[in-house]
Design a protein that fits this description.
The chain is of the alpha+beta class and 588 residues long. Helix content is 48%, strand content 18%.
């Protein structure tokens, strides 16, 4: 396509700029080379997939806004050229292509997006390790509600979303704390709406490791000690089962004997009764017949007691066998985990330090233990009432609490052991005063950081995970993830992938602009917080004149624009510093 174009007016200034950036990182070529089974009539399916990504970058609420907004994107020739297309399809064509996608095709698109991000992510990983000595991950689960009356969304279920139960999906999301971009999205996975956080912890950990290509050294020595302890406890379970089995067998023997004696005694009573009636003998208090009936009553009561005892022992045996079976299953699973972790350690050429911050929904005993065993510095809160009531009972009026800011105070205990948890953990009880109401919460930590000697630092380090909550909010409000634009499972998956890619893409582009455009709005220069909402919701819908040049374009915002008087000169090139090979794990 010739670059000798006359000056063009666009109503989507940042989409033009981002089109140039997309060319510089090879995004357009990558998406256009994806093999799709659908036919090309006027527009190729690859072009319509690219158009869908542009719509998400523009923060469009509905797919039809591509063609029916005040300034339709599919009619903006400058945007078309910036993204190296001859024209865009109507939104209805985009919709049909999305409905026709297969899961394998969208997985390939996701893999291509991952490949585009890989060198940028590798650079951030190295920067984080050099500056902080570790990687910091955050994970969370967020709802994607749909109409409660809808019957056309596949695989939805009712679950907790926002303030109540609603029909929809859950998205499991993981981000990396990035020195350059603040938040770098690593992965997103869709699940039915009834999915709960505590079932997704390991999957999030694995997703983070798969994307960065690095992992901590697994704490196999701790896991091995845990298995030995559990095996010892297993002997106690086995002994209880055997004791109950012996008691049950004894009770069964005594019951059998009693039933035999009871049958014999009934015969004796029948014979004596007939004998007394035949001879018309009276039944005196100490006669043989009265004594026989008393003996019969004793045996009947004994049988009743033994039958109750037998039922109780049978229930007790089933319960103890079940607990022993669960215990054996746990030991077996942990032994398999140990074997796998040992294999991972043998192939981990460059183990790293890493934090994982998770909210209370993920903080079950097993999830916390697993995260510890996987080698992470753990920052989380306990699920439900696992710890908080116990810690509250330790605190009284004489307990010295430390104010950590605002209305919050904390008291902490270092390396505390609890009978229902395998490892010593640092715990802190938070107390918040809201009017006349006092609320409590618990923090959990495991690792080398001396958190109990710096409670304020611990409090703020954990709560820095609000970064992922802000990212989720940004996805819903800026990239319109509060509204699903599609209704097929593969297309929903693609929208999730495009939304997190778009959030990263805008931040990468802000850095790219900062490096070559001195006149960009000052708020955009901070790549950690480059005013993404302003760029997407305002600048991507702002008018500008575009002067096409050999290696990019010169964009001048119109007098009717919020950015009137500013110009951007952008070139379709960008250089990323790649990490040295020795700094990568074998599986990266």
């Amino acid at each position: 396509m010739s670059e000798n174009y006359p000056e063009t007016l666009t109503h989507h200034a940042m989409l033009v700029v981002w089109g140039q950036f997309a060319q510089s990182i090879g995004l357009i070529d990558k998406l256009q080379s994806v093999a799709l089974h659908q036919k090309t009539v006027e527009h190729s399916p690859q072009r319509k997939i690219l158009e869908f990504l542009v719509a998400i970058l523009a923060g469009l609420e509905h797919l039809q806004d591509i063609s029916r907004a005040a300034h339709p994107i599919d009619q903006d020739q400058a945007v078309t050229k910036a993204w190296r297309q001859t024209s865009w399809a109507d939104y209805s064509g985009v919709s049909r292509t999305l409905v026709g996608l297969t899961l394998a095709e969208v997985e390939q698109i996701a893999a291509d997006l991952e490949q585009i991000a890989r060198p940028i992510l590798a650079e951030e990983v190295m920067l984080a390790l050099r500056s902080a000595g570790r990687l910091t991950y955050d994970g969370d689960l967020t709802g994607r509600p749909v109409s409660n009356t809808s019957t056309t969304y596949p695989g939805v279920a009712y679950g907790h979303m926002g303030d109540g139960l609603q029909l929809g999906y859950q998205a499991a999301m993981v981000s990396l704390h990035s020195p350059t971009y603040g938040r770098f999205w690593l992965s997103v996975a869709s699940h039915p709406g009834d999915t709960i956080s505590c079932t997704q912890a390991e999957a999030m950990l694995r997703a983070a490791e798969a994307r960065t290509g690095m992992r901590p050294w697994r704490r196999t020595e701790l896991l091995g000690e845990r298995i030995v302890t559990l095996e010892g406890e297993g002997l106690k379970y086995q002994a209880k089962v055997q004791a109950t089995q012996a008691a049950l067998e004894s009770a069964q023997t005594r019951l059998t004997k009693t039933r035999q004696q009871l049958a014999e005694q009934r015969g004796v009573v029948v014979e004596l009764t007939a004998y007394y009636q035949e001879r018309q003998r009276p039944e005196r208090p100490y006669s043989n017949l009265v004594k026989a009936r008393q003996r019969l009553g004793v045996l009947e009561r004994r049988q009743g007691r033994l039958e109750k005892q037998l039922l109780k022992l049978e229930n007790q045996l089933r319960h103890r066998e079940h607990r022993w079976g669960l215990h054996q299953t746990t030991v077996h699973q942990l032994s398999e985990r140990l074997e796998y972790f040992e294999q991972e350690n043998r192939t981990n050429l460059c183990p790293i330090q890493a934090d994982f911050r998770l909210d209370a929904g993920f903080g079950t005993r097993e999830n916390v233990a697993l995260t510890i065993e996987m080698g992470y510095e753990v920052y989380t809160k306990p699920y439900s009432d696992w710890l908080t009531p116990r810690l509250k009972r330790r605190v009284n009026e004489s307990t010295q609490c430390i104010w950590i800011g605002g209305n919050a105070e904390m008291v902490a205990w270092k390396s505390e052991r609890f009978p229902d948890f395998p490892y010593p953990i640092d715990v802190a009880l938070e107390r918040f005063q809201t009017g006349q109401t006092q609320r409590h919460s618990t923090l959990i930590h495991f690792g080398s950081d001396p958190v109990t000697s710096d409670l304020s630092g611990w409090f703020h380090r954990y709560n820095a995970r609000q970064s992922i909550e802000a990212g989720i909010k940004e996805g819903k409000n800026v990239f319109a993830m509060h509204h699903l634009k599609v209704r097929s499972a593969p297309a929903i998956f693609l929208q999730e992938q495009f939304a997190v890619f778009a959030a990263n893409f805008v931040r990468w582009a802000a850095r790219w602009l900062t490096e070559q455009c001195p006149q960009i709005p000052s708020g955009w220069r901070n790549t950690v917080q480059p005013k993404v909402k302003e760029q997407v919701k305002v600048a991507a819908h702002t008018s500008a004149w575009v002067d096409w040049q050999a290696h990019g374009c010169f964009l001048t915002f119109t007098d009717h624009s919020l950015f009137a008087g500013m110009s951007l000169s952008v070139k379709k090139q960008w250089v990323v510093q790649l990490p040295l090979p020795f700094s990568k794990s074998e599986f990266f």
